[in-house]
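Input chain follows. Return C-alpha cells only.
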Amino acid sequence: MLRECEVTEREKERFLPLMVDPSVLLSADLLKRLKEARYELYLSRTLYKILKERNEEEISNILRYFYWPWQRRLIKIRFELMYQFIEVTKPKPYEAILECRKEIEPYMEKVDLPHEVREILIEEFLFLREKSSLLLRFGRTLNYFKRAGISIINLANTLKDKKEKIFERIKGLKWLVVVLLVATDLPSQDPIFTSLMRGAQFALVVING
C-alpha cells in the first residue's frame, strides 16, 4: 500500500486543475459544489462548444452516452443549471494538440461512437496526459477507455483519503477522479505498479469518491 502522509502542494498540483466529464453535468449537487469550490476547471473543447450553442436536443443526445441506460430513470437534465455552471465557473475549453491526437485516435477508433462523443473522449484523455485529472459522476466514460484498450487500475481504498484531502471542498458526494498513471510518480511508491504497468502503454488510475 502507499505510504500514508499529508497532502503536499506537489500532490495537489498533480490532481488539479480538473476536467469535468459530461456525466458531471447530470448532477445538480456536483455542479453546486464545484461552483462553490472555485477550482480551476476545464471542459473538452467539443463539449464546451455544444453547451455554448445551447442546442438542447444535441446536448441531450451527447449526454446519453455518458450514463448507463439503466440509469435513465434517475437522470433529469437541467439545462439552466448547466448554463449557470458555465457562466459562474467559466471553465476553459481544452483543445488537444494535433500531434498528440494522432497518437490516441487509433485507440478510440476501436469504439463505435458518434464523432462528437469520440472527440470528447480524445480531449479528456489528452488532458489527463498533459495537465491533471478528470472528474466523473458515472463510470461509462471508463468503459469506453477500456474498450479502446486502455488499462484501468482501481485504487479506491489506497488513495481515497488522500483524494478527499485534495478535493475536500466537494467531499461527501459520490464521484470518481481519474489520473493517467504514466503522468505521475505514483508507481515509485509501491512495487505493485511495476507489474500492473508491464506491457501497458497507457493506464488510468481510478479513485472513488
